[in-house]
């Protein structure tokens, strides 16, 4: 990979490359299968008490990588660090969000169980443990080696994509993820590598300032969720959407010129948006991410290119519920909130469609290039590399 | 024997064809290699032409955009929109003398920028941007002191080169002016595109731009033997190489060669099998024919000799029928002679049936043996008024053998010599060691044997004496006996001077006067 390696921690900066190792080192109480159903992790049993509360019974055999047992206190402390409150109840734990507006499922998926030692280091109960870390490399080994599986992982931070690609092509690295499809050309036909696709969890979208009237937001959504915008911004065959979108001829009523904010990889999407707006397309401001975020928080925008969570369904609550941690757009819809609080994702989705906070333009696959000796390199469904411990190596 | 004959016949028939075919295929192989190289060359030239066309189109589009947008009031917005319609044109910027250095495209030199601001179109060399090749270009904007500049993204060209396939394993490479890879169809060489490491072809590619020739066959960056076609784009500084592993390019000729070898082997085997069967049949037929011929010869000889004897016996019978007592001594004498002759006749046949058995051989001292032969022939020699003499070897000379058979052979030669000698002449037996062999020679001073008879002398039933007592089995039987003892017989004869037969036998060197050896056995 390329970019700063950062520190591996159970919480915090998920942009750092080291966070790729989170699922291998720190377990969650439960994870999701590809259909979005809960799968036991550290929890032996999960019982949903309401949309906001679950009761959890812990596995008794779990140990941290330092050999100590995972206790209820460790779990309580870890969940509290993840914005959850925990009540011990008759051999189990009742878990609910501190902020009653957030879905407990989404918060539990983000919360990893850990223990922090006196020297500040974190240990987890996952199959891998950290052996060493430098500025450029994080090295992990499997706690109990398994024949035919990956037993040692080195997360290497190369300075540029070019370095990362070159070293992967040379065979110095066996895996590279978060590729744009245009770069796959480099890896096709390389006998030692295979290209792996996984469903993406986010969607490239144009979010609306909630101050815009609902009718206008509906028109904007119809105009922008179109094949035309998609092709202009991404080219053909890049996005997963194939249905449920307009043909792009939605009529946008006359009105004020709309400014479009963009940052990072969204410049073309912003330009395509402006073109789709016709006479109402205004200035496209392509800004650094922090400046974009500041303008979003101050509501100093009309439209902004963003990449919100789309999967799992409970993830919607983290973005679109009133006051949710990633709701930078001021969006507030009681019908959506009620459905999210009740864990009724289809109703929440329908309510979002009725009063759209954004035009969802393009959902792209996770793309990875993996050493051809890996037999079953499945990605995701939640963290792209959470399945790596199950990957098998051809003998 | 049959197999050898069959192999020889088959090989002599098939091998010339195989040699001709191999030569033909070698010529075909060379032509195939040449035509493969020409095909690769053509592909390289086509790719180079497409690249040149693509670059020309991109620059033409740039000029068109410059002309269309340059004087428009909303030029910046229009320029930004170009990225949607023509992503390969990159991010177009209107630059002027006031534009900070960082606002220009990175690969243009200051003098090129100055020229661009004066209204001249300029372009940099191709270089590797982050992940794909790029080319910086400035075109006139139509406004004094300014120009439109952009970095052309040549990803599409890189893709085009990398997608070129020749056969299953052939691919294309693109090099920049310094010989570094810009695109590689070979996955194994693609790392060098990004790492900018030189590959085996790098110096060849760089040299091609200076007019040097590039080899049509070489070891590529992976160490494979490849055929290659080359094309250069001097204006752009690109070189295109299209390579195909020789093993794949020449597979057709190799397959044909393999098939031919297989076909030749099968044909040879088939020919040998058929030949073997036919030769065996022919040999069997020849053997049968030879047996009939031999039987005929024997029958002719026996008929002739016995007929002669019968004639004499009939004459004796007629003489006896006369009941004249005066003829009685003559009748008795003639009958004794005929009985003796017929006994010899029977003995000759009997000798033919006796086989020499090496396991029964005994040591024989040849000087003593020659004495015995001499004694055996003395009576016959006296009747013919021929003197017999023996020249002994300087020391004892031992051989191993069947004494009876060897004596029959030596006596046969001696009696032949006596018969060939004129009365009053001499027959000499000579014992000697020669070339590590024991030798017994029988020399006469007779009329000699005509040279044309020498060659068939040892063939069965070939005697021309036809005196009534010679079946023509004597000398062939002598040769059979000597050969069975591991020895040989030879003859030298000069007409008018006499004949010498030499029996040569292996010396039984370790043998001395063993008490058990019947060295003096008569």
Brief description of this entry?
Chain A has helices spanning 22-25, 72-81, 104-110, 161-170, 214-224, 227-234, 267-277, 289-297, 315-320, 334-341, 345-354; strands at 30-32, 38-40, 43-48, 54-58, 84-89, 92-97, 115-116, 122-123, 128-133, 137-142, 152-156, 175-177, 193-198, 203-208, 258-263, 281-287, 303-306, 358-363, 366-371. With 395 residues, chain A is of the alpha+beta class. The model of chain B is unreliable at 512-522 (pLDDT under 50).
Summary keywords:
heterodimer; A: 395 residues; alpha+beta; D-Maltodextrin-Binding Protein, domain 2; 3 domains; 4-stranded antiparallel sheet; 11 helices; 19 strands; 24% strand; B: 522 residues; 6-stranded antiparallel sheet; 5-stranded antiparallel sheet; rod-shaped; disordered C terminus
Structure report:
The complex is a heterodimer of chains A (395) and B (522). In chain A, α6 (227-234) packs antiparallel against α7 (267-277). Chain A has 395 residues and is of the alpha+beta class. In chain A, β9 and β10 (137-142) form a beta hairpin. Helix content of chain A is 24%, strand content 24%. The mean pLDDT of chain A is 90. Chain A is globular and about 65 Å long. Chain A folds into three domains: 27-123, D-Maltodextrin-Binding Protein, domain 2 (3-Layer(aba) Sandwich), CATH 3.40.190; 128-199 and 365-390, 3-Layer(aba) Sandwich (D-Maltodextrin-Binding Protein, domain 2); 203-363, Dipeptide-binding Protein, Domain 3 (Dipeptide-binding Protein, domain 3, Roll), CATH 3.10.105. With 522 residues, chain B is α+β, with helices and mostly antiparallel strands. Chain B has a domain at 354-506: Heat Shock Protein 90. Helix content of chain B is 50%, strand content 19%. Chain B has helices spanning 2-69, 75-85, 110-117, 155-163, 191-195, 202-209, 246-249, 251-321, 328-353, 366-383, 403-420, 451-454, 474-484, and strands at 93-96, 122-123, 127-128, 133-140, 146-153, 165-166, 170-175, 181-184, 217-219, 225-233, 238-245, 362-365, 387-391, 398-401, 426-434, 437-443, 488-494, 498-506. In chain B, strands 6, 7, 8, 9, 10 and 11 form a six-stranded antiparallel beta sheet that branches. In chain B, strands 1, 2, 3, 4 and 5 form a five-stranded antiparallel beta sheet that branches. Chain B has a five-stranded mixed beta sheet with strand order 13-15-16-18-17. In chain B, α8 (251-321) packs antiparallel against α9 (328-353) and α11 (403-420) runs antiparallel to α13. Chain B is rod-shaped and about 170 Å long. Residues 512-522 of chain B have low confidence and may be disordered. The A-B interface holds A 160-163, 165-167, 169-170, 182-183, 185-193, 232-233, 235, 267-268, 271-272, 275, 284 and B 80-81, 83-84, 87, 128, 130-131, 155, 158-159, 162, 185-188, 190-191, 193-195.
